[in-house]
Amino acid sequence: MSVRKIIVWVVLSLLVILTLTVVKIAWYDRYVWKGTPDHMFDLPREDRSQWPTSTAPWTTEKQSIQVATPDGLKIKDITFYVNSIGMDFVYINAGQYRAENGIRETYASNQFYRAKHIKNKPLPALITISKDFYLSAFEVTNQQFELFDPSHKQQRPEYQQGPDGDNHPVEPVTWQQAQQYTRWLSKKEGRQYRLPTEAEWEYAARAGTTTRLYWGNDFWDRNKANLGGLHSNMETYRLDGYEESAPVGSYPANPWGLYDMIGNSYEWVNDWWHPNLTQDSIDPQGPDSGKIRMGKGGSWTTRHYAIYAGEDDGNNPADLGDIRGIRLLVEIQ
After folding, report:
1. Does the bond joining 124 to the residue before it have cis omega, within 30 degrees of 0?
2. Which of 51, 76, 56 is nearest to 66 (CA)?
3. Who is most buried in 69, 164, 179, 213, counting CB within 10 A?
4. In 6-87, at which residue ranges do the beta strands (DSSP E only) sit?
5. Which residues pair with residue 95 across a beta bridge?
6. Do 306 and 47 contact (CB within 8 A), yes or no?
7. CB atoms < 10 A from the CB of 45, how many?
8. Distance from CA of residue 39 to its chain's centroid?
9. Which long-range CB contacts under 8 A does 217-225 form with residues at least 24 apart?
10. pLDDT > 60? residue 112
């Protein structure tokens, strides 16, 4: 073997070793984090003695809005419940959904595919949500979050600086900061604000649909959500004008009147990260402990071919970047 071939072989071997090392470190950081960072733990038990004796009044507003459904765009009348800081909520009735366990199942809408590939598989887990609740119609914005924490304005990512970023989804927010925000609102209004569980979030995101996404199976549709392009975010920018996050509500709502349940900003939920639900259950809460918390819905960086209604992401400290936002649930009292 010539010296030149030996050198080439050595260089290629080193590149392979380096690549495998980087992949292993990335995998380790995401899924085998040695300890749980402080900002992933629950806060101390909430002290309700400081809540007001009566709940803050809400107002209602009925609007005719455009919603995306598997049968196309439609105009639907939605009643929004507006809280004391102008945040819109939608009333979500209790119900059930099937927890599809990945892209293959949700993508398989035609009978031929199902007959060939998954005809012998059991039905996905039936998840029951037993209680009605309110869910915020939009992702919490920078402006809304900064009523609680004005210093966050200096922490906004560069693309959200200035007044144009006020109506973008709040980024970045740690899981514990999200919990602190819900407690601030609970104490302010005397209502129980919290993050939704993964099951509550996915139930609301699907909005009674059974397709891959609430607008159908055409995940490549660039007009329904703020997602990444096939190879780069610039591809998305050329199509919808938003290279990064977009103002909340820039795309059609889902059939229940909830905006940006897919794309724009990952949304923290209450659960520790866990595998997809595989057993029928009522109001699942996720595991009692873990190392990383769960985010749902994808973001402006998520490639559109990877998105589906149940898509989730486990977030470790290295993931606490500029794509983690929040959506709030209010319990019915």
Report:
1. no
2. 76
3. 213
4. 59-69, 72-82
5. 129
6. no
7. 6
8. 18
9. 217/70, 217/106, 217/107, 217/109, 219/107, 219/304, 219/305, 219/307, 219/308, 220/304, 220/305, 222/304, 223/251, 224/68, 224/251, 224/252, 224/262, 225/251, 225/260, 225/262, 225/263, 225/264, 225/298, 225/307
10. no
CA–CA dist 295, 328 (Å, integer): 13
Q: How would you list the strands of the sheet with 324-325, edge to edge?
A: 312-315, 293-296, 266-272, 324-325
Segment 115-156, tens digit of pLDDT: 444 455 567 889 999 999 999 999 999 999 999 999 999 989
> Is 80 exceeded by the pLDDT of residue 249?
yes
pLDDT digits (tens, 9 = 90+) for 28-57: 444 445 677 787 888 888 889 889 999 999
- Residue reference for tokens 């749980």: 36
CA neighbor of 76 nearest in space, from 85, 84, 68, 67: 67
Question: Containing H/E element for 295?
Answer: strand 293-296
Rounded distance between C-alpha atoms, residue 278 and residue 24, angstroms: 28
Rounded CA gap, 124 and 126, in Å?
6
DSSP letter for 314, please.
Answer: E
Calculate the alpha carbon distances from 9 to 5, 17, 18 in Å: 6, 12, 14
Token pair 């995401």 in the structure block, residue: 30
Token pair, residue 9, equals: 């072989």
Number of CB atoms found within 10 A of residue 117's CB: 12
pLDDT tens digits for range 165-189: 999 999 989 899 999 999 999 999 9
Which phi and psi angles does 222 have, rounded to 5°? -85, 5
Pairing of strands 133-136, 95-99: unpaired
Task: List, as one string, the DSSP characters of 109-170.
Answer: -SHHHHHHHSTTSPPPEEEEE-S-EEEESSPPBHHHHTTT-GGGGGGS-GGG-SGGGTTSBP
Q: Which two tokens stand for residue 72?
A: 């196309």
